[in-house]
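Lecture 7 notes: from sequence to structure.

We start with a single chain of 113 residues. Read the sequence below before looking at the structure.
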Amino acid sequence: MSRAVTLSRRLLLERPLAAPDGAGGFAQTWETLGAVWAEVVARGGREMDGGIMSLAAARYRITLRGAPVGAEQRPTPECRFREGDRVFAIDAVTEKDGQGQYLVCHATEEVAP
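Now the structure, written as tokens:
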């Protein structure tokens, strides 16, 4: 028997948009698709070389209510979650159960210490 899911964190789901940068190219901006309630569980982390400064990357398992494939509220790997100044880049999305009641997003948060 699996444990109960506690959806106690409000996250914004965002997807990337390419916007003209005024110089003939494009810059990436983010469009908010809406708020979701989720359970956020830390899964580990590591330190990386970020060039000029080192970065810490923490992995998370983010569980939220399921949504049908193709629905705007269903996260995909190019999307991200935002909680205030914190950003969680989605690496993969899987269904938690056979009924699709919950989705599990494997995500990474990069932090400059």
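Strands lie at 9-20, 26-50, 53-65, 80-83, 86-95, 102-111. Keep this in mind for problem set 3.
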